[in-house]
């Protein structure tokens, strides 16, 4: 779908402040290079699908295994205790699963993010949520963890 930012794939990654770290024929995984949580990643189908219930065929068959594999890679690369998995609607009309590495005392919790939440509208129209209590980490650190995720997939 030409109007869907996520359907643009790698072409839209810099606009969304992330880098692709893995892909197969159905799925792609990107990792944020700006934010408070090194390793924060996004799993999305390459085909334009808006909701989990629209998954079918090979996407439906592989979703669980791909989600588990990507979560393990993010957890290991970010040296996290666990990875929260969030699925939201809203900013994009394209299914995307947030893989959020959690560290004890870190900015994420079971309510998504701790502290006073600030919403910033990006040029792309997407809304980025951040916490006033946890400043953004250096881009170099964010990119380093993204590269570790990529390396775990042998890319």
UniProtKB/TrEMBL annotation:
What keywords appear on the UniProt entry? Hydrolase
Q: Does the keyword Hydrolase apply?
A: yes
The short sequence motif called Histidine triad motif sits at 94-98
Which residues are in the HIT domain?
A: 5-109
Molecular function GO labels: hydrolase activity
Highest taxon listed in the record's lineage: Bacteria
**What protein name applies here?**
Diadenosine tetraphosphate (Ap4A) hydrolase
Q: Which organism is it from?
A: Streptoalloteichus hindustanus
